[in-house]
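Researcher: Good morning. I'm working through a list of sequences from a screen, and I'd like to move beyond sequence-only analysis. For each chain I'm collecting a predicted structure so we can compare shapes side by side. This is the next one on the list. No need for commentary yet; just the structure.
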Amino acid sequence: MGTIFLFDALREATDEEMQKDKSVFVLGEDVGHYGGSYKVTKDLHIKYGDIRVLDTPIAENSFMGMAIGAAMTGLRPVVEGMNMSFLLLAFNQISNNAGMLRYTSGGNFKIPLVIRGPGGVGKQLGAEHSQRLEAYFQAIPGLKIVACSTPYNAKGLLKSAIRDSNPVIFFEHVLLYNLQDHVPENEYFIPLDKAEVVRCGTEITIITYSRMRYHVLQATDTLVQKGYDPEIIDLISLKPIDIDSIVASLNKTHHVLIVEECMKTGGIAAEIIAQVNDNYFDLLDAPIVRLSSQDIPTPYNGALEKATVVQPQQIVEAVEKLLS
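Model: Good morning. Structure tokens for this chain:
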């Protein structure tokens, strides 16, 4: 078991799947000779050639349509969005074609397509490059959505996504690429529809995903010192949401705090609250609390940018208030 960066874990997953299956290929802007904006595809063009690691023009709608067509014919495209916000230019292809074709064709076509790349609030990347698109894609029928958070789950999830016969939106956080962790040398896969219980506890369930996992862990250090015993769930799967894992935790704690980097209006937390309130309301001893980003374009100014995103001290205060 070795320690590697998250971007290397993604690269290993891609390399292994391309080596095992000639139908797997990568396309996107600068994925070839440049090696990808965050080096996830570094040197893969040397090994597999310029057709299987295909540099595209700056034409997201066009190359997304090409990838969907390739998937319909039996290939397994992995599309890298240089920044996930750019893929809003391909929203029509993703929603009307990728998400719906398996259903509208009566099952005659499968769409084994992975759409992956960096997103989230970085460090002063500006509003257009700090998009959190989870809520945009969550409403589209036919898509699966995952958000990796460690090198270990990044590799296992990407391998599972490439082998899935449905379109998968694969979110990577721009500030987690240099995260290091142990990754097994043996091949492994992680299911696309399961949450991870990061810490077991008895008093409150804290639900989170992506980069906010680390803000929650930082807050938990403080909470434990103060005598609290939180349970932490990393959603990983944003669609479908693993409601069974949430309910299993809720049966123990009867309190829920959701921490997300997504905007509050129409976000992932809003969907979880709706599902719990609709079906498991009697398990709650208090209303669910959510901490989300401000409903504003992310400012470029560093101090203002920090103020739009949930910070560990806010998590500590929310738990104390909820359990008081």
